[in-house]
Amino acid sequence: MINKFIIITLVLICAFCPKALAADKRLELSIDNKEISLSGSIRLDIIFPGLENAPEPKLPEIDGFKANYLRSYNMASKTESGMVRSTRHTYVLMPQETGLFQVGPFEFSAGGDRYISETLIVRVGSGIGLKDKGSGTASKEEEFYAKDNAFLLIATGKNRVYVNETFPVIAGLYYKDIHITDIEYPTVKHGGFSISEFLTPQASRKKIKGYDFRVVAFRSKAFATKPGELKLGPATIMCKMQTGSSSSLSGGFKTTSLQLDSTLKNIEVLPLPALRKPDNFSGAIGDFKFDVTVEPKGYVDVGDAITISMQVSGEGNLDIISEPYIEESAELTLYDVSIKEEAETHKIFEQVVVPKSTKAKQIPKITFSYFNPKKEEYFTITRGPYPIEVFETKKSQKAKIVEEPVKGVAEYKREPIGKDIIYIKDNPGRFQEQGVYLYKDKQFLFMHTFPLIFYLSTLVLYKRHEKLKNDIRYARYKFAYKKAKRGLKEAYSLLTENNAEEFYGCLFAIVQEYFGDKFNLPPGGITADIVDRILKPRGVDIELLGKTRSFFNDCDIARFTPAHYEKKNMLNIFGEAEEIVTCFKNI
Amino acid sequence: MKILRLLGIILVVVSICHKLHAAEDSRFVDFEEASRLYSDSLFEKAAERYESILKSGDKSANLYYNLGNAYFKLGSLGKAILNYERAKRLMPYDASLRSNLEYAYSLVEEPPMEKSRIWLRRRVRNFLDSFTIDGLTKLLSLIYLIALGLLALLIFKSQLRRLLMNSIFALIVVFMFTLTLLCINVYRTETLQSAVIITREANARFEPIEGGTVHYKLYEGLMVEVLKTRGQWSQIRREDGKIGWLQASSYEII
User: Fold this and answer.
1) A429 domain-assigned
2) pLDDT one-digit tens code per residue, B80-134
3) Is CATH 1.25.40.10 the right assignment for the domain spanning B2-106?
4) How many A/B residue pairs have CB atoms within 8 Å?
5) Which of B94, B180, B88 has the alpha carbon at shortest distance from B140?
6) Residues of A in Cβ contact (< 8 Å) with B61
7) Model confidence over A282-340: pLDDT tens digits?
8) Which of A57, A252, B136, B174 is positioned for an S-S bond with A108, CB 3.0–4.6 A?
9) CB distance from B226 to chain A under 8 Å?
10) Residues of chain B with pLDDT > 90: what percent?
11) Contacts of B84 in chain A (CB under 8 A)
């Protein structure tokens, strides 16, 4: 019973624990070519899905290859579950021998997870001749030159190609019994052909007619740009040859420059057949696959961008492939196509389309046509149409979701409001002359002087009032004349009444007060001596001084003997008083 | 004799007043007639009638406004904006005018201009446009009178000296600011000469000649400043500061 329990427990642990504890993840492997020659190389990509900045994996030794680390980068890709970020590490694998080899499986730990890859099989052929791929036997051309110590051959995959059809070009440097250094990249005369740059050369060994040759192979691709009987080559290579040995009497190695030329390659270039050429054919030649992805799928709003990714992959001339054809639609705005990614094995085009209205129901068919040179036939791959459902702008929808309607408050709906100008005015308003402004109006400006004059007058009067109030000397001087004049009037009424006693007393007091006010003196002390004491130093006219003195003397006498004076005398003395007051007004 | 002279003067004054009143009456009649034509959707005739009132040498904000509406209905966006801008100088705060002007500007095709350069210019222009020359003059007059009143009060109420002096100082600052605004607006109106493009499209060239290289394009309703005029050509400055030569028939001064 106990044994059964233990066995069941162990079975359960074995069944569930590995999944529960060791969360294994798939490591993606990809190579750009599964069949290469010994002189070639392949690119190996190791991808850690869902992990950014994964460290460089320590690649174990791969049987038949020498691996060199190239680079790494983070990348993001869209999947049905959303954006997936991953890390891609790239290696260059250089074959060391011919045969079938296995790349992988690899097992790495990164980010706390274990990543396990699949296995890939790669076939490595020998030599540079393509006809004998993987056979290891020498070509006729190689055998022809086998007696030479060094020779250069140029090989192409085909002798008959179509315009724009790509074919490999390999320049191979063969040498035996000599030491060759400083090998430069070959140059190839290629009138009528477009040839890409040669890749890093690969070195190998090959037995030709019993001789052991060292082979340095330079690989490239070319395509013809015009039809006809064209010649490719000759290829030329510059290098240095070392002869002799370190033990020779002449003192070691002797280095001489060496130029090697290959023979020409005759290539028949055919034009593309006009028969059954598709309408939308834009020159693609090769054997391709065509895949389309549309993001976002299904439901979009008016004005939202829909991204169409179109991937063309396969063998052929990817350089000259132009964008696939999308049927135009009145309900969609099609933007310019851009190339999102361009690699040796694929090319991805990206097209953005924007629905103009809710009437847009689908993304039209997308077609890609190409000519397959092997089958000598045109092919057209059609993808779509892709149905879409277009709604009005998202804002209103979002508002419905986020803003829960409050009870008792009417739900606000955006009312479609028209837009136009507001109607004309009923009356012309106040007319005014054109070019006339208030600041130019002289009357308006002149009116502003009145408040200023008013203010200044108020200020002056107030100041004067304040001075009269506070400065007694000034006040007495200011009012002396008026006061004297008023007194003279009173004196004159006494004169008319013939009241001599009061008249003389009044007249004397008036003049006495007048001088007192004028010169700020106590009036009681003013007598005839004022003439010498006050008036003389002020430079008053002598005649006036005499009159003043005479007035005071006459008054003194008349005040005490008024009966002796007649009205005539009174008039004379009143006249003197008037004259004195008037004459001293401005002194 | 004196009575006769006085009667003569009274007669002359009455006849002048009567003539003035009659002239005003005719303008009102024309205005009403033009408005009736507008209501009957005879926009072209309405515009002609409004223009005829302006030709008499008088202006009014509502007259420019209605004329702007008539041109708008005729599809002359440039002339509509021109008249709205003229009305704006007389009644900058009128809500209908602001609405119409804003709508008209929304229809103007704008060349690609550096936004940062025109943003400040437009802000300053809108600020200055919100003051009329007569409005600023009246404001200055009011400040002047208040300041004199406060000075007069200062004579009699010396115990309020500190408060009054602060108030007067503040008024002087406001006065100087208002005076600056007035000077700028007078300069803009009398010297700068803002204009509106009235043709559908106009080419500003590097030189004042027909075959001159096109510097940039201007579209109907865009505002420019006229710097100088040489014959049929005027040197203008666009809102972003770019200067070019334009045919004088392509624009009209506000």
Assistant:
1) no
2) 999 999 999 888 889 999 999 988 988 888 777 777 677 888 888 888 888 889 8
3) yes
4) 87
5) B180
6) 429
7) 788 888 888 888 887 777 777 777 888 888 888 888 878 888 888 777 788 877 777 77
8) A57
9) no
10) 38
11) none
Domain that holds residue A251: 140-270
Q: Say what the pLDDT of residue A36 is.
A: 74
Q: Is residue A550 part of a domain?
A: yes
Strand A166-175 to A211-224 pairing = antiparallel
List CB contacts (< 8 A) between B156 and chain A. 462
- Using CA coordinates, name the residue in chain A closest to B31: A428
Asked if the interface predicted TM-score (ipTM) of this complex is over 0.85, the answer is: no
Domain boundary pick from A125, A150, A181: A125
Domain ranges of chain B: 2-106, 133-192, 194-253
Q: Residue A294 corresponds to which tokens in the numbers above?
A: 């549309």
**Judged by CB atoms within 8 Å, which residues 130-169 of B form the interface with A?**
133-134, 137-138, 141, 144-145, 148, 151-152, 155-156
Is B62 at the interface with chain A, CB within 8 A?
yes
According to the model, what pLDDT value does residue B71 have? 93
For residue B190, give the DSSP letter.
Answer: I
Is the C-alpha dihedral spanning A295, A296, A302, A305 positive or negative? negative
Contact residues, chain A, for B65 at CB < 8 Å: 424-425
Alpha-carbon span A239 to A327, nearest angstrom:
56
Task: Tell me which chain B residues have a C-beta less than 8 angstroms from the C-beta of A430.
Answer: 60
Q: Do A220 and A109 belong to one domain?
A: no
Residues B63, A426: C-beta atoms closer than 8 Å = no
Query: Which residue type does A223 have?
Result: F
Residue A79 Ramachandran class (φ > 0 left, ψ -120 to 50 alpha, else beta): beta
**pLDDT by residue (tens digit) across B182-232?**
999 898 888 888 899 999 889 999 988 888 888 888 889 998 988 888 889
Candidates A166, A168, A159; CA nearest to A231 is A159
